[in-house]
């Protein structure tokens, strides 16, 4: 069980060793702002944990905590860099060719004509099933028809889709 650090003991530890710790971290990291952040994080760890009065070798203890924070920071940055490299390696979305675009438009027009050829009820059943994802029972309830009728209309519509896809 950790005990709270008396404020005066932590204050003394901070005053006596903060400058040294920040310099030590700056030499390790080569960056003044990262060193300042990790020095603060080191003292926060002590504040949250161990009784500062019980620390026998303060610089060794501070260096151990700060060293583990440096390792954590490098590990986190390594993971971030790997993630960014993975994102950068993903292929760019490709633009569709004019031929593909024409095929897509023709297919959409054929589907539109097919939907027009359905009766109003078959079209409604098909659209509710495909675009709203409703169950047969929900479609029947919404349209005021039986589940058996929903199945018949959907079978008719899907058969037409199959015929269209084979053409």
Automatic annotation (TrEMBL):
Protein name (Swiss-Prot/TrEMBL): Sigma-70 family RNA polymerase sigma factor
GO molecular function: DNA binding; sigma factor activity
Family: Belongs to the sigma-70 factor family. ECF subfamily.
Gene3D superfamilies named in the record: 1.10.1740.10, Winged helix-like DNA-binding domain superfamily/Winged helix DNA-binding domain (1.10.10.10)
Biological process annotations from GO: DNA-templated transcription initiation
RNA polymerase sigma factor 70 region 4 type domain segment(s): 109-161
Species name: Pseudothauera nasutitermitis
Keywords of this entry: Sigma factor, Transcription, Transcription regulation
Span of domain RNA polymerase sigma-70 region: 13-78
């Amino acid at each position: 069980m950790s005990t709270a650090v008396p404020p005066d003991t932590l204050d003394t530890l901070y005053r006596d060793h903060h400058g040294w710790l920040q310099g030590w971290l700056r030499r390790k990291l080569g960056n003044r702002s990262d060193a300042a952040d990790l020095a603060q994080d080191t003292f926060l760890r002590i504040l949250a944990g161990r009784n500062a009065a019980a620390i026998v070798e303060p610089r060794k203890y501070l260096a151990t905590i700060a060293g583990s924070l440096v390792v954590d920071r490098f590990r986190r940055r390594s993971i971030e860099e790997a993630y960014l490299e993975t994102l950068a390696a993903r292929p760019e979305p490709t633009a569709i060719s004019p031929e593909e675009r024409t095929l897509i438009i023709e297919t959409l027009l054929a589907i539109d004509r097919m939907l027009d050829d359905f009766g109003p009820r078959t079209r409604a059943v098909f659209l509710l099933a495909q675009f709203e994802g409703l169950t047969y029972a929900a479609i029947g309830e919404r349209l005021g028809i039986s589940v058996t009728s929903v199945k018949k209309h959907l079978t008719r519509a899907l058969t037409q889709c199959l015929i269209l896809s084979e053409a």
